[in-house]
Write a structure and sequence with these properties.
The protein has one helix spanning 2-11, and strands at 30-37, 42-52, 58-68, 74-86, 91-98, 103-110, 120-125, 133-139. The protein contains one helix and eight strands, in the order H-E-E-E-E-E-E-E-E.
């Protein structure tokens, strides 16, 4: 968890010189989806839906929870709101609070300057109700 927070601190500093080569940019929305096994017949999911913010970065809606891996039926879910931005390292991260006012957590999605077109990306979440880490998918959210 400490490594995620340190990485997040690096992300929210200054934009990298090559940020223009990486998608998404601040003028576009995006969605990141991570689903990982969570025991027999269960999956933990984490979705981040982002819209451009007024000044820079994105406003995000984070949805995390647990679902039946066979049927897809959601066993529980939590929804929160927060912000996201790019930083010094390739990728982006953010923080959020749950809808009931509790502190949510943070997330970091790592990108590669070698393969800027990759949409299958590694991520980490700090909130207990979200997947801890894994490979997920970045999309336009359409």
């Amino acid at each position: 968890m400490r490594s995620v927070l340190v990485a997040l601190a690096l992300f929210v500093t200054a934009a990298p010189a090559g940020a223009g080569e990486l998608w998404p940019q601040h003028d576009s929305g995006w969605r990141y989806a991570l689903v990982v096994p969570a025991g027999p017949g269960r999956e933990r999911f984490g979705y981040v839906d982002a819209e451009p913010a007024r000044l820079s970065g994105w406003t995000v809606t984070v949805t995390c929870g647990l679902q039946d891996s066979r049927t897809g039926r959601v066993l529980y879910r939590l929804v929160g709101r927060g912000t996201s931005n790019r930083g010094a390292s390739p990728g982006f991260g953010g923080t959020w609070d749950w809808g009931d006012g509790r502190r949510g957590g943070s997330f970091v999605v790592t990108q590669s300057m070698r393969n800027p077109e990759d949409l299958r990306l590694r991520a980490e979440f700090t909130a207990l109700d979200c997947p801890r880490r894994g490979m997920g998918d970045l999309s336009t959210g359409d």
